[in-house]
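Two proteins were folded this term; both appear here.
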Amino acid sequence: MLFGWPDLYGVGDYCIMANRGADTNPVGIDDVLRADQGWIEVIEIQSTTNARYRATPNGAAYRYTNPARPTEYYLWSNVQNVGEWKPLAGSGLLIWHFDKSISGNNPPQKLQLAVVQGGGTRVLSATTWPSPGSAKTDFFNKDVNAELGAMTTPESKWNDGSASGLRIYDIGPSGPTIEFSVGVGLITPEGEGGSGGLGGTSGAGTGGVVANGGSVSASGAGAPAAGAAGAVAGGVAGSGTAGVTQATGGAAIAGANAIAGSPSGSHSGTSGTVEGAPTSSASDEFGCSCSTVTRQKSESAFTLALAALALAVSRRRRRVLR
């Protein structure tokens, strides 16, 4: 067997190891087998992932693995009926279900590698040599089936009947780029959802979360970014298009658009969301949302400075009079 790949009965025209699709233009190798050889990038989706992605033909594939049995997983990618895939009757997200605990593909039994048909049927996996070998309803897209989850048809269960927790939803129209979302929670606006991703908590983020005008933490796995004003004395980092940050407990005292950094200056989100920030009535003329304790300290320091200046002037006058 080539690369140890089995004959894929019950898969139709979706792999050269199954039907050939056409005599003069046989179909290619499916993305499960390509991923097995390391020929394409694979983005791992977790049960905690809440993100939106863009899938492109011959781009990354997305894999969701059974934590109880790592040899079982769902894998999907964008397959368009052009080039070597021109014989296919449709296009969109093609979703596969792989389970190594099953020995090969022997229709109509459960298959080791099966196409999850978007239309909810088992026409392919129930037939050794499906004819026709493809249909528009085999794909997931906005016009056929825009979601795969626990309550959909088909559903995203594991082969033992247990819930997988996988939810792929809000799948866009079929095309060179297909957007889709993954997860059961809210997608946060800051950050990117990983390689090929648009937004969410699963990948590298560009924005942090700013809380109470001072503390900054990176969202998800977001990478910290230095603010426009840079780090100043005391280790404070601020961000914003205007203004300077002052090293007093993470307080920003200049620039209406400045965001106060954390005292360590280790994280500063350039597109973070503000939580629990005071109202405009609580801010001073510099746009600061500092605490009253910091302001009281600043006022005390200012009073001491004035007293020292007055004492210096008084001593100088005495010398002149002498």
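Next, the second protein.
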Amino acid sequence: MNSLAPPGVTEPGVTEGKGGIFEETIPPEDRARYREVFTKARDARVDHVDFDLSVGVKIPSSIPIAPIPAEIVEIEPQVYSFDYFVSGDKVVIVDPQSLEIAAIFTV
């Protein structure tokens, strides 16, 4: 599966945008794996955000982010340089250099 595309690349199910990578849907066969991996990490959980959860939005530096788990990088190698946090049922992929949201998906 290759559901997250690098900037400038579009594939079926992937939309290009200013945030870099977008992911519209996770195939059902991978959803349980993503949910398990992302929700077990406690250091990147945010209970409440007071900013817009949208691609391209710069997050506050006070938001805890963590490297993408190795299990996800195995499935999606192009996200190795991104970080993430979880808010509710949303996984938010963040560019650690700019702190801009690169992708958001529901698990």
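Residues 1-24 have pLDDT under 50 and may be disordered. Helices lie at 28-40, 70-75. These notes refer to the second protein only.
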